[in-house]
Design a protein that fits this description.
Layout (H helix, E strand, L loop, with lengths): L8 H26 L1 H7 L2 H30 L6 H14 L6 H15 L32 E4 L6 H10 L10 H16 L10 E5 L3 E3 L2 E10 L2 E11 L5 E3 L3 E2 H8 L14 H11 L5 H7 L3 H17 L6 E2 L8 E5 L5 E6 L12 H13 L9 E10 L5 H10 L4 E4 L2 E11 L2 E2 H7 L2 H20 L2 E2 L8 E3 L5 E3 L6 E2 L4 E2 L8 H5 L11 E2 L5 H4 L3 H11 L5 H12 L22
Parallel strand pairs: 19-20
Antiparallel strand pairs: 1-2, 2-4, 3-4, 4-5, 5-6, 5-7, 8-9, 9-10, 10-13, 11-13, 12-13, 14-16, 15-18, 16-17
Helix pairs in contact: 1-3, 1-4, 1-5, 3-5, 6-7, 10-11, 15-18
Protein name: Isocitrate dehydrogenase kinase/phosphatase
InterPro entries: AceK_kinase, AceK_regulatory, Isocitrate_DH_AceK
EC number: 2.7.11.5, 3.1.3.-
């Protein structure tokens, strides 16, 4: 129970110190995101990549700093529960007029759980549910920007309004030909609206006030509103080799936006004073996308994780099915389980591994997953949520699953009354394993999946990632038909690998040998040996060799490695190439 009176003056000081820690974090987070505009204007792609990776580390650093300061100044881990209740009440009071209250609540949870054992908590102590509303938060400072800008064109002035949507972002530098680009956008809009389009009284364009930066692109994100219809859109702005800008495409509708904000892509950098307002705007464009995933896409993955856990608890309360061993081939280093009614899988690192994985360690696997978190995922590697000390109701586990965890992951399992607590777990979006998908696929689905598989590997290669284990079972198919990689325990940077051609045998004994007769270094890779493991199905082999035969040639991999080492940063298009306006837009 909460105390009736706030009697300990230390409680306010602790709450204020905690909020100061969060404010420092968000100031640094926002500053790094805001500088993405300057990096884009300079074409500093390597700087953009470094900033993207470093920004992910900001949160944990500030949490650690805050926890250490509270322990140093107040011996916080020894304080009584009654005092912590008072701290929470003061903290809520401090958030009433805050511009990021939901993020600050998550920061409070992170700091306190960092200092105290999980058994110390009750639902009235941490923010299991939000305490401060995020609706209608406004920044009333004179120099502040609104969340979005609204334009009110007529059918005849639509081209001018679209031009102003672009120029209001005040990018430093010139466009190749902005009038031509806007005309291309307008032609696409007109084709979509149709000849019988009528502008209603409320016809308008709403555009979020900050550009969305990722990889080598800047995205204008907004929506057309006409009568009762709303049509979301995004305009990718790219920079050519001469440093001039051009609009590359027009993305239309919820499905296009879902691909742009996919869980398999790197986080955006966006300058936001009120992130909840951005999330609300984006949710109006993508109502099928959970708020947790929108926060993740904006780089606020810690709060996204918090929202995900709330959604998970809500789902558990309103479902009755049981956790089971996930369908498919069991992994050698990860134990994977799911809840059939919930669209995610849960992954545990096993305590021991078979001989072929003898050099694998828990810390090595964690580093691989962190690498993926910080790297450009190019739409081909699933994002993961990492949790510690997650409690599950014991009765919701199939006995076979519980036995598997007790056998393979005893160090991660803790008994706690009617619950079991998993000390460390990764959670990923559930997909259909590619090997299972191929078994039941129709001919046209088979062809699409094999082509997508090869494209996924090529995208990873361009992003300096070698998947390591390229078996079909390590890839999944999304609801949009995209093939995404999700097994990270063997990934390496492409530039750390040595791609070799199998040497010619020197004599008949070597040619007939069932054993490898040539020396193999620890990071040597022989692409021509992939075929026997991947292409046993004649139908699959025919499609693969038609579209992706170069993946079996060491020269393909060597050329990409040399290109990356020379400093080239690949282009990533989160939309199909046929959606681009054409190469003429670049020159």
């Amino acid at each position: 129970m909460f105390p009736r009176e706030l009697t300990d003056t230390r409680a306010y000081d602790i709450a204020a110190a905690m909020l100061d820690g969060f404010n420092t974090h968000y100031r640094l987070f926002r500053g790094t995101s805001a500088l993405a505009k300057q990096r884009f204007e300079r074409g500093d792609w390597h700087g953009q990549q470094r900033a993207q990776a470093l920004r992910i580390e900001f949160y944990d650093r500030r949490v650690e700093e805050a926890a250490l300061a509270l322990e140093r100044d107040y011996a916080a881990s020894t304080l009584a529960m009654d005092l912590w209740h008072q701290v929470k009440l003061h903290y809520i009071g401090l958030l009433v007029n805050h511009h990021q209250p939901e993020l600050a609540e998550t920061f409070f949870n992170s700091v306190t759980t960092r200092m105290l054992h999980h058994s110390y908590f009750h639902n009235d102590f941490i923010f299991v549910r939000p305490a401060v509303s995020t609706e209608y938060i406004e920044n009333d400072e004179p120099a502040s920007q609104p969340t979005y800008r609204a334009y009110y064109p007529t059918r005849d002035s639509l081209q001018d309004a679209l031009s102003r949507c672009i120029t209001n972002f005040q990018l430093q530098g010139e466009f190749v030909d902005l009038a031509r680009d806007v005309a291309l956008v307008l032609a696409t809009v007109n084709r979509h609206l149709g000849a019988d389009f009528r502008a209603r009284a409320n016809f308008q364009i709403q555009v979020l006030s900050s550009l969305f930066f990722r990889n080598k692109g800047a995205y204008v994100v907004g929506k057309f509103i006409n009568g009762f219809s709303e049509l979301p859109f995004a305009l990718p702005i790219l920079r050519n080799e001469e440093g001039r800008y051009y609009i590359d495409a027009l993305l239309f509708g919820e499905d296009d936006l879902l691909m742009l904000f996919s869980f398999a892509r790197a986080y955006f950098m966006v300058d936001m004073e009120i992130p909840s307002a951005y999330v609300q705007f984006l949710r109006s464009m993508m109502p099928r996308k959970p708020r947790a995933e929108i926060y993740n896409a904006l780089g606020l993955q810690k709060h996204g994780k918090n929202l995900f856990y709330r959604d998970f608890l809500y789902h558990l309360r309103h479902s009755g099915d049981r956790f089971r061993i996930a369908p498919g081939i069991k992994g050698m280093v990860m134990l994977v389980f799911d809840l059939p009614s919930f669209p995610f899988v849960f992954k545990l690192i096993k305590d021991f591994y078979p001989p072929q994985k003898e050099n694998t360690t828990r810390e090595t696997i964690k580093r691989k997953y962190l690498l993926v978190k910080q790297h450009d995922r190019v739409g081909r590697m699933a994002d993961t949520l990492e949790f510690s000390n997650v409690a599950f109701p014991r009765q919701r586990f199939e006995p076979e699953l519980l036995a598997e965890i007790q056998h393979f992951c005893p160090s991660l399992l803790e008994e706690s009354g009617d619950d079991i607590v998993l000390r460390h777990v990764y959670i990923e979006r559930r997909m259909v394993p590619l090997n299972i998908y191929l078994q039941d696929a129709r001919p046209e689905q088979l062809e699409h999946a094999v082509i997508e598989y090869g494209n996924a590997i090529k995208d990873l290669v361009a992003a300096n990632i070698f998947p390591g284990d390229m078996l079909w079972k390590n890839f999944g198919v999304t609801r949009h038909g995209k093939v995404v990689f999700y097994d990270y325990d063997e990934i390496e940077y492409l530039t750390d690998c040595n791609f070799r051609k199998v040497p010619e045998p020197r004599n008949e004994e070597e040619e007939m040998s069932a054993e490898v007769w040539y020396t193999v270094g620890p990071r040597d890779v022989f692409p021509e040996t992939f075929g026997p493991f991947l292409l046993g199905n004649p139908s699959v082999r025919g499609i693969f060799m038609k579209h992706h035969a170069e993946l079996l040639d060491a020269a393909f991999w060597q050329a990409h490695k040399a290109r990356i080492l020379a400093g080239h940063v690949h282009d990533v298009f989160p939309y199909d190439p046929h959606r681009r306006f054409g190469r003429h837009a670049i020159t």
